[in-house]
Amino acid sequence: MPSMPSVKLRAALSELAAGNMIILTDDEDRENEGDLCVAAEHASPEAINFMAVHGRGLICLSLPETRVQELGLSLLVPPEANQTAHSTPFCMPVDARKGITTGISAPDRAEAVRVALDPSSKPGDLVAPGHLPVLSASSGGVLERPGHTEASVELAKLAGLTPGAVICEIMNREGGMAGQHDLRRLAKEFGFKTLAIRDLIDYLEPRSGFPKCPVGLVAGESF
Known about the structure:
By secondary structure, the protein is an alpha/beta fold. It has helices spanning 7-17, 45-55, 65-70, 106-117, 148-158, 180-190, 197-204, 215-218, and strands at residues 22-25, 34-39, 56-64, 90-96, 126-137, 165-170, 193-196.
């Protein structure tokens, strides 16, 4: 019998479906990190500027591995040569080929996200190297690799949106990584819902043998 989503998971999916950001955290024994997360199809220039001002970390586009391949994007290093602690799947950073200035502005990065998400886009519609790092989510999803990359893509899918998200590591005002106190303060200040990746895994694990569909449909509801 599939499990029902937790209250926190439902709240996070409702926020993402409505175009709002959430704070997504991983385990203390992993990166112990909080990321701002917005569904890619809602990644407006305003959202990206907010991440730059208040998140302060690297702003990245998480995409399913299949979409990365469709766009002709390659990993910076092959998996067997990835020496990062958690094998972060960085692809070549990109810009949109048209409709931008330098590529680094919030509108320019939002345009790169839009092009990457557009099903009619072809590899030539993005240029590399650019200013938007792309992360390739594992084909096995968050159950295979419990990272922000996979979790953010999975959440967009469960919210009934195009799989893909823009995420930004949250740093504190002093330039270090935000701790739990900093994350709670940011969530309170801007009314963000916070979700632990573990909550998503707890929902998906019992369902791993079932077809995935939006959580609203699982419960006979919609967002």
